Amino acid sequence: MAERGGSGRKGSRPEGWTRVVRARSAVGRTHPVTDTPAQTVTPSFRSDVTVELVKHTAADSDVLWAARVSTAGEQSLEELQKDPERSKGLINYLMRDRHGSPFEHNSMTFFISAPILVFREFMRHRVGWSYNEESGRYRELEPVFYVPGQDRKLVQEGRPGKYVFVDGSPEQHKVVSDAMIDSYRRSYETYQEMLAAGIAREVARSVLPVGLFSSMYATCNARSLMHFLGLRTQHEQAKVPSFPQREIEMVGEKMEREWARLMPLTYAAFNANGRIAP
């Protein structure tokens, strides 16, 4: 299920969107209409996430000239014009022996749309990352919510630290979907009622769930992204197993595909050396 009931893209108006400006509360008092008045909208539901690479300065050659300045000084500038393929052994050496700083001389900025629960985990990653997220204080939040797709494993078996997730039954998927959609609709109705009564956005947003979609810009370098991927994705070549929540793993997989295209030699060395950030 990619989306239900409206536009999947966060930031666009869902299908069936209607705007109703309400200047009176339920008790009849008149309130000033703010720059973002309360709205009556049709919620939409998504099971996907969106990751867009919006800008970058990232290439395997960035790693090479940064590494070679240690021994070549000014002559390291010559690496800018050389074919990185000739020096992939150096990249592998740096990765294997964990000489990490040469992997920091690049930059990638992603625009990400995902449920708030993903961003609460994402922002645990602080070193080498910069974030700017959509604000619920400064704008009225749109009713786009996350509902797991049929391929999302629902049942956890085992004890903390040693568990697996298994597929849910059709009945369990229906329980999850029905409960989430009902809860989302009621919480957003309450949010709108509070805004219509003149309550500030920063107060009214407290009733909204972590399944609400948000959006942010996230900027990183290859080293910080490798650390993120080592913790937030599962991979057969990983030396150290990771058990990420599926929703943040979905984001990580999309970011990984973009990075692999930009820095293929660095990406290959990352996998060949157990997906451990240098």
UniProtKB/TrEMBL annotation:
From the UniProt record, give the pathway where this protein acts.
Answer: Pyrimidine metabolism; dTTP biosynthesis
Task: Please list which residues make up the signal peptide.
Answer: none
PROSITE patterns this protein is in?
THYX (PS51331)
User: Single Gene Ontology BP term?
Assistant: dTTP biosynthetic process
What does this protein need as cofactor? FAD
Q: Where does FAD bind?
A: 101, 124-126, 133, 221-223, 227
**EC number(s) stated in the UniProt entry for this protein:** 2.1.1.148
Catalytic reactions on record: dUMP + (6R)-5,10-methylene-5,6,7,8-tetrahydrofolate + NADPH + H(+) = dTMP + (6S)-5,6,7,8-tetrahydrofolate + NADP(+)
| Stated name of the protein | Flavin-dependent thymidylate synthase
Q: From what organism does this protein derive?
A: Streptomyces clavuligerus
Q: Which gene encodes it?
A: thyX
